[in-house]
């Protein structure tokens, strides 16, 4: 994998095919593989009807969130340092294996370990809320640990003379503290059993608002090539501008998403959801995150040759349109009839923060970790 300070996100080792429409075929082939891997493994591990285990929705979702964060650590922050010395398929297998071990281990330690000390994390809480309490940290980590790569370009560590993996280790250590503080202030009180804790936000608002910040980070840092924050000038100014700007942009997305989702679902469903609808910007946001990640890594983040304004606007519109279509298809049909998830309200079923995040993980594992194994040689022009 090749990354730079200006473009620090994980990318395939070689760019997708450029000749003719092969980049479209390459992207679609990757999409098919990701869907097959996601649905097949879902039936095995999480499907409420078909899986031999009772992992749905928790602790499956908890381990899933930690798995994605681990890929962020090793792929975004550390740029796959160490893993990049391995040839395929060993590189992909090492990434997938270490991700599985980390996610299951952390989930188990928080639930079965910390849960015996702090009842907030206890696995016996109704609805698996103890598993969720531990994994809620990841919601905030998705924005902070990713932002310092996509928007900050790893600043200030390269400027201080560090190289990978020292850059990634320093970055993770430095960001862990502020992320934990945000979790303790906003996240933990919203799910705590303590009667003395007065949450600043409901858990639904926490989910919806803070995932909206993640959308802003990925949108600006990846889809829009860090525009407009890159106009700020020095790395320090870009870091400051992106931090403030993503908070503002994320809040705008959150406020716009709620009436948009109400229109997509219809008033009957929206009224039945009540205050729970405040978490649905996260559900729409994860659909957009999936397409922005797949578009960058499987479709080459095209267009790239129409001039900056046209490139950015078209990417924005394509990924957003695909996200809305995916959101409606998932909630209105796929969650119930393909994935066998329970109803979430009148005419809708499932929770996109489960299966769509599962597709995000498989995108990172297969397209980035395995470098689209089996597709590049067949679809790249000779």
Automatic annotation (TrEMBL):
The chain crosses the membrane at residues 23-46, 58-78, 90-111, 131-153, 165-186, 206-224, 244-268, 280-300, 312-331, 343-368. Keywords: Membrane, Transmembrane, Transmembrane helix. Coiled coil: none annotated. This is Amino acid transporter, AAT family. It comes from Williamsia maris.
